[in-house]
Amino acid sequence: MKLLDHRAEGPTSAPPLLLGPSLGTSSALWDKVAPELSITHRVVRWELPGHGGSAADLIGAGATVGDLAGLVLALADSLGIERFAYAGVSLGGAVGLHLAVHHPGRVDSLAVICSSAHFNGAKPWEDRAALVRREGLAGLAESANARWFTPGFTVPELVRDHRDADPGAYAACCDALAAFDLRDRLAEISSPTLLIAGREDPATPPVHLREIADAVPGAALVEIPGASHLAPAQCPEAVLTALRAHFDGGARRGMEVRREVLGDPHVDRAQARQTPFTARFQDFISRYAWGEIWTDPTLTRRERSMITLTALVAHGHYDELAMHVRAALRNGLTPEEIGAVLLQTAVYCGVPAANSAFATAQRVLAEEEG
Ligand SMILES: O=C(O)CC1=CCC(=O)O1
């Protein structure tokens, strides 16, 4: 099966983040944003059919946003990505809305940028599709700067990509925009949703994003002054700040997992002891140890507990060991299994270390039983 062209960057073990382009643009739209996002995410930028390196015949006349969403899901499947965060601009944002409504199990978190739940009816897009089918894209590309940027600003590479797109596929994308209207379904979206509007955007002005924010439960709206339609290209830092804050569920998720594994009383005590001096360290632990490592599904929590017990014995961290014996019980290890792990440490970490570990574990197990 033919797939959308894409560019992937960032650690393969990081949470996946799919980035969608707007009509006439390519993945270059994300050039100033994607490298930064790829520090914390496996970023996959996809190309519209007939744009960038995607084949034009992936869609045809009468295409829908649902067809584009299907291509995005096929790409995700091919990359072994089940659930993902998603950000899209304009038509790419419409794809994100469609995914969140029709495939909620796939979308962990959504950001919709300079986009809309409807693109002002069918007529303008039917006219544009007819024009492009008749005359190609050269003429339309001449007006790209006015549609995409504030006066005096341009990104020549994006304008060139617009001119070079396949007219048939571009027109099919216009067909998809003509038929798109998700206003009645927005309230069904359950993924955490961020809307980003360009204050100077003539194509999808802030009122379109506000309409989505008002309808999607819990959604947030950020308006970027000085940005027109292609905000990630024109105001990358503002977009990056908003996306980072939205997608960095690491700290939040980390705190949830920390509480699940260590228990509320322990975490509450740690929080109460926190001072301005230790706050950054506590935050680091929540994000990194709990938000990234303990949440990584490659290993089970039971397996992680066994590894952690062993490592703590190896380094003689007996206070931490006591805490992780409790965590191991919470993660489903039996006292017998904990004993078997400690016995094995006698072989690899040394008998004196295991001796102290058994004493610590015995005390904790007795406390937990009593
Ligand atoms: O190029 C435009 O006209 C702006 C636009 C509308 C939908 C989209 O994806 O881009």
Automatic annotation (TrEMBL):
Residues 280-362 form the Carboxymuconolactone decarboxylase-like domain. SUPFAM superfamilies: AhpD-like, alpha/beta-Hydrolases. It comes from the Bacteria. Residues 18-240 form the AB hydrolase-1 domain. NCBIfam families: decarb_PcaC (TIGR02425), protocat_pcaD (TIGR02427). PANTHER family: 4-CARBOXYMUCONOLACTONE DECARBOXYLASE FAMILY PROTEIN, CARBOXYMUCONOLACTONE DECARBOXYLASE-LIKE DOMAIN-CONTAINING PROTEIN. This is 3-oxoadipate enol-lactonase.
